Backbone:
């Protein structure tokens, strides 16, 4: 049980330059404990509707926290790579906002939670647009906005920017891309619905390729946590210091993540965990503690809503342990580590 803020003294405290070794070791212990506590939970099943995803090891479980000062704390299989899947959607939305501005982007995609499945073949009846950029229809509309000619240039631009946020070069898993392309008829149906509604242009195959390739990009927990920490750090990569994302748009992206990031669990997530976050069918979840932390968890067994079972458990525990909920009285913007004092 944590003590009230400031009620105890500690040998150390956080500072502008980061977490001191003593606090770091406390934080590491907590992550290790969360890993141990949930590593044997074997509820849920690995996604198989994209056949290549079915090859994931159901035992995998990795956790990574990255601070905005560039410190990294890891547990378990944090180095194992997996495809980013739907977790590419907030980043693609960010790029669309940067390239086209809010007004034009929002002509192609809304920002309302849908209450429908992520892959529903449906538009918002009132606006004629996809509900939001976190469902497939919205993400394909966004992919259409950021694609380039030739199509590989748009994919490369996306992967390069994500690599800058992660702090290392990233790449596409060609087997997953082939598997998605071969079996993605539902997404093809969505794309043609978008074409019919005038939301995307006639280069339907290019838009789909951009979307499938984005989803097939490989990351590990550290990459994702760093990408999230770059968001938390107003767009600047914590280690390299490089400006990666235009900070003016990050608030829009995080707002949509907050309300729509966890499939049909988004409301519960906002209630209980209270962080802008995104999950994907590969079993990853990443969350942003604004101005403080990036969090990533990977474990491929999914619950009925399509979210990682161990990922949800780990994030809930991290959030409650450190008071990370955006509206928690203890979240004062830059000093979550006070709970260890
Ligand atoms: N590529 C996947 C699809 O479009 C992404 C799904 C997800 O992670 O939600 O079906």
Residues:
């Amino acid at each position: 049980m944590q003590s009230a803020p400031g009620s105890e003294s500690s040998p150390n405290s956080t500072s502008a330059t980061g977490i001191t070794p003593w606090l770091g070791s406390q934080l590491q212990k907590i992550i290790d404990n969360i890993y141990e506590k949930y590593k044997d939970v074997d509820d849920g099943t690995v996604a198989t509707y994209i056949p290549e995803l079915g090859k994931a090891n159901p035992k995998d479980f990795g956790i990574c926290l990255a601070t905005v000062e560039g410190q990294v704390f890891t547990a378990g299989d944090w180095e194992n790579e997996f495809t980013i899947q739907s977790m590419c959607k907030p980043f693609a939305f960010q790029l669309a906002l940067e390239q086209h501005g809010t007004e034009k982007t929002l002509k192609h995609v809304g920002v309302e939670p849908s209450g429908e499945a992520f892959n529903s073949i449906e538009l918002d009846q009132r606006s004629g647009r996809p509900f939001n950029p976190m469902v497939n229809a919205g993400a394909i509309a966004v992919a259409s906005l950021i694609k380039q000619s030739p199509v590989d240039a748009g994919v490369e631009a996306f992967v390069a920017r994500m690599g800058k946020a992660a702090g290392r070069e990233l790449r596409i898993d060609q087997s997953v891309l082939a598997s998605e392309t071969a079996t993605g008829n539902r997404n093809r149906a969505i794309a043609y619905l978008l074409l019919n509604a005038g939301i995307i242009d006639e280069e339907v195959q290019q838009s789909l390729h951009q979307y499938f390739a984005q989803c097939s990009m490989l990351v590990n927990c550290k990459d994702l946590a760093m990408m999230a920490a770059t968001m938390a750090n107003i767009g600047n990569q914590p280690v390299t210091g490089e400006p990666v994302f235009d900070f003016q748009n990050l608030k829009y992206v995080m707002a949509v993540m907050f309300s729509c990031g966890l499939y049909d669990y988004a409301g519960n997530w906002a209630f209980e965990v209270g962080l802008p976050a995104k999950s994907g069918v590969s079993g990853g979840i990443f969350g942003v503690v604004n101005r403080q932390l990036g969090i990533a968890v990977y474990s491929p067994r999914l619950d009925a809503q399509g979210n990682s079972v161990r990922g949800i458990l780990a994030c809930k525990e991290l959030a409650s342990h450190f008071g990370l909920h955006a509206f928690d009285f203890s979240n004062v913007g830059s000093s979550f580590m006070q709970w260890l004092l």
